[in-house]
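Worked example

This section walks through a single chain of length 173. The input is the sequence exactly as stored; nothing has been trimmed or padded.
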Amino acid sequence: MTSPAMRAAPRPYSDPYVTGVVLGLVLLAAFVLVGRGLGASGAFASAAAAVTNVVSPNAVQRNAFFADRLPFYGDWLVVEIAGVFVGGWASAALAQRLRVTVERGTHLSATQRLVRASAGGAVMGVGAVLARGCTSGQALTGGALLSVGSWLFIAGAFGAAYLAAYLLRSAWQ
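Given that input, the structure is written out below as tokens.
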């Protein structure tokens, strides 16, 4: 067994500009190969339809929103999200960053960090419903299609992120 000091140092994070170009090429490939852009919230709606179908098939059949999402395993967005999990794991493994940890500042406990992250995720989920799409669907796909609403969403999301970073910066010091 090796001590933490003897393990190889993790590789630095990828260059964000190179990563952005690669993400753009992935978006282009999605349009060309499957005729759809990228997004995530639709996959969760499809998974919710599948779970609801197990519990109450009649409720799903009476609900057009859920009925359109079955069978969920053939949905492009479900396949995409599975790829995100596999790709994220592979990326972390290749960069020697594969470990279970809670990234946090020195002023937060792991529990406080997880509670704040969960609250932020819940706010993002509500925002995705209100915006009729998740951040990736609105910003990447809608932005690439030059949707005015998506560009307004991008401006609002970046503005809110800068404001939140300013207000919450003490938690990371």
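What to look for: Residues 105-173 form one domain.
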